[in-house]
Amino acid sequence: MVDGSETHGGTAPRRSHLVDISPLRESPAFARLWVGNTLAGIGAQVTATAVALHIYDLTASTFMVSLVAWFALGPVIASGLYGGAVADRFDRRVVALVASLVAWASTVSLALIAWAGVTTVWAFYVITTVNAVAATIASATRQAITPRLLPVQLLPKAAALMGISMGLMVTVGPGLAGVLVARVGYAWTYTVDVLLFVAGLLGLWTLPRIRPETGVDGVAPPSGLRSVVEGLAHLRTAPNVRMSFVVDIIAMTFGHPMVLFPAVGAVVIGGGPVTAGLLLAGFATGGILSSLGSGRVTGARWQGRAIRNAIVVYGLAILGFGIVVAVVMVGGHAVSSRDIADANRPALAAALVCLAVAGGADNVSAIFRQTILQSAVPDRLRGRMQGIFTVVVTGGPRLGQMLAGSLATLTVTWVPPAVGGALVVLLVVAAVARVRSFHDYDALNPRP
Hints:
It is a multi-pass membrane protein. The chain crosses the membrane at residues 33-56, 62-82, 94-116, 122-140, 160-181, 187-207, 245-270, 276-299, 311-335, 347-368, 388-408, 414-433. Keywords: Cell membrane, Membrane, Transmembrane, Transmembrane helix, Transport. InterPro entries: MFS_dom (IPR020846), MFS_trans_sf (IPR036259), TM_effector (IPR010290). It is a single chain. By secondary structure, this protein is mainly alpha-helical. The protein has one domain: Up-down Bundle (Growth Hormone, Chain: A), CATH 1.20.1250. The chain is built from 16 helices and no strands. It is globular.
């Protein structure tokens, strides 16, 4: 899918396919940030999965689960844009720490209402929206911090390590959530996230100060709305960065079936919460494996083509998942039992393979999209570009959840992944063909 034989920076080609851990050795600060973010992210995925299962248990409606994304979408977009501007204006360590504290407080609130036995669904929507806003600002700021901790030649390696981190988050987190919900209930499940979040706070607390850099004229970035507008205006002259956003929006809008997993576990494949957690874990397992084998992949020179090819594979894998669900439903082999022992095991295995391929392809795409953003954008604009990037990578899936949940409600469960996966392939190939500079993007000469 990508040519790993060419490296940047004039260094010798890496012979090993195993992940390069040089960033962890070169920067203890990055290592602490990576470990803390991984543990906190596992907890965040525990909560995200538990909330979806909790709302489905309360309402028996996939559409009501998708409303988590509907209510958070606007605030997430606004917080990503403005949060990136704040990260370019103030000490990024402080910005990330404050935002993370707010996210932690919202998780504490979820645990408290679960312990109190609150069943009012709107309370979950309000708290998860606050959590999404704070997490968006924290994520954008953390990503903008990374290039200040590492030299440019290690950024693709760091992105691969972050792929492992993300894979662990969405493998361990959902799987753990499924088991915890089934065994000890929702209150204890949310409490686990409260405890794990502390590791992320410690990782940020131990960072050095990351003060904003001034421009070539010695002037600090503007504040408020002017700063947001300046960041958005930069995209007009940054076709490669812009296209990296566009292709991800396409993939996540039309090929993000995760909101369907509770229903798939409840009335299609069977197995209830455990199956839903396994499906999410299958996607993440592919991401982990692709990062573990990224030693030579991260040296690829033509990164635009690598992104296109990875997303095409992603779309085909999501289409495959839709076909698996369709075969089960149309063939009359659906299982409604919540006991994992009664699940349709062949269908579950096939679905897991498709989702693992999708997760691996998505991770390869993410490695190069993040590398383009961190290496081609000047530091004084990096917070704002990361803010927009965070809006894309969080808002796109939320839009995808909205679309998949609504379409499944109007049709049947297999339609969103089957139709969406095919659309991802067609639209991404067409979009990249129209922007030649992205198709020919050269890591040896990074241009925004």
